[in-house]
Specification:
about 325 residues; alpha+beta; 2 domains; nine-stranded antiparallel β-sheet; five-stranded antiparallel β-sheet; 6 helices; 14 strands; about 25% helix; elongated
């Protein structure tokens, strides 16, 4: 099995040809499979309510945190109380809070946790450093009596909940049945002047009992648009030059997918001197997918490259095993 950390480390080196050659050798052995998360670590097993909170808690793993109280952070607890009431979350017996500084993700936030009389968690709230609501998750179990909300009823509930917490998503929504947790997932992707912002979204889960299960709002600062943009062909050419260097002298090759304009988070995936995570604003970029062929494709299914839409430099990307 290919080790994900080893692969990511190798990708940060100036030349990718070495790792492709190694992957080509690995692919010739039997039992090769792409590494991926399994079990409870990714929130796909266990209690559905706990899975709802995994998106909030996952990012805080390994971060530095300290306790906050209503005495030293009254605004945080007041905001949590307002969101609790606005979304119709259950009453709590007690509440605790913490401030989290996550160096890996270059972010800080405040989290408030509600528990019931038995000490079981029933809700969690997360606020950005500027006070903006990032997520609210209800953790108690839905009690379903056989009557489930229709898609249209769920959409009305989602819109009403977002309005109650002053979130106004733009664009059209996607409504999908949640076969895993029950109920419906309503999603709005963020776009700036018609160009999608990669990873930014507003999402609401309406539970099978008709109550709101969660609200998440992910929105990043955007850099100014470049005065002049390079074209799609120029972006693909820049990535092709990289691909030629990566796979030179190996038994593997690659093909390019069409490029698309997106707002992206720059990162140091292809720059050993830069951090894999950046706190700088999102930049407009051409996003080009590289699909390895030959032996390397058995271990790396997709390499995504971000090409700055203004100056044509490679500003990061992603890799899928």
């Amino acid at each position: 099995m290919v080790n994900a950390k080893r692969l990511m480390s190798a990708l940060r080196r100036p030349t990718f040809a070495t790792i492709v050659f190694v992957l080509g050798i690995l692919a010739t052995s039997s039992g090769i499979a792409a590494a991926g998360p399994t079990g409870a670590a990714d929130g796909r097993t266990g209690d559905p309510a706990a899975r709802e909170a995994s998106a909030i808690r996952a990012s805080s793993a390994g971060a530095v945190s300290w306790t906050i109280t209503p005495a030293d952070a009254p605004g945080v607890f007041a905001r949590a109380a307002a969101v609790r009431e606005a979304l119709g979350f259950p009453s709590r017996a007690s509440t605790t809070g913490r401030h989290v500084r996550d160096g890996a993700l270059a972010t800080e936030y405040d989290a408030v946790d509600d528990v019931d009389g038995a000490g079981a968690p029933i809700a969690e709230f997360r606020f950005a450093s500027d006070g903006r609501l990032e997520a609210a998750v209800r953790l108690d179990t839905a009690r379903v009596d056989g009557r489930r909300p229709t898609a249209s009823v769920a959409l009305v509930a989602a819109r009403r909940g977002l309005a109650a917490v002053a979130i106004s998503p733009a664009g059209s929504e996607t409504v999908e049945a949640d076969s895993f947790q029950g109920g419906w997932q309503i999603h709005w992707g963020r776009a700036q002047r018609g160009i999608p912002v990669r990873g930014d979204e507003t999402r609401v889960h309406v539970r099978a009992d008709g109550f709101l299960g969660s609200v998440t709002w992910i929105e990043h600062q955007l850099a100014p648009e470049p005065g002049r943009r390079i074209g799609r062909d120029a972006a693909r050419g820049a990535v092709a030059a990289r691909g030629d260097a990566w796979f030179a002298g190996t038994q593997s090759g690659y093909r390019l997918d069409d490029a698309s304009l997106q707002w992206v988070a720059p990162n140091g995936l292809f720059d050993a001197t830069a951090s894999l995570v950046s706190s700088v604003p999102y930049r407009l970029a051409w996003v080009v997918n590289v699909k390895p062929t030959g032996p390397a494709a058995l271990s790396v299914s997709l390499i995504t490259v971000f090409v700055d839409a203004g100056d044509g430099s490679v500003i990061g990307g992603d890799v899928v095993e």
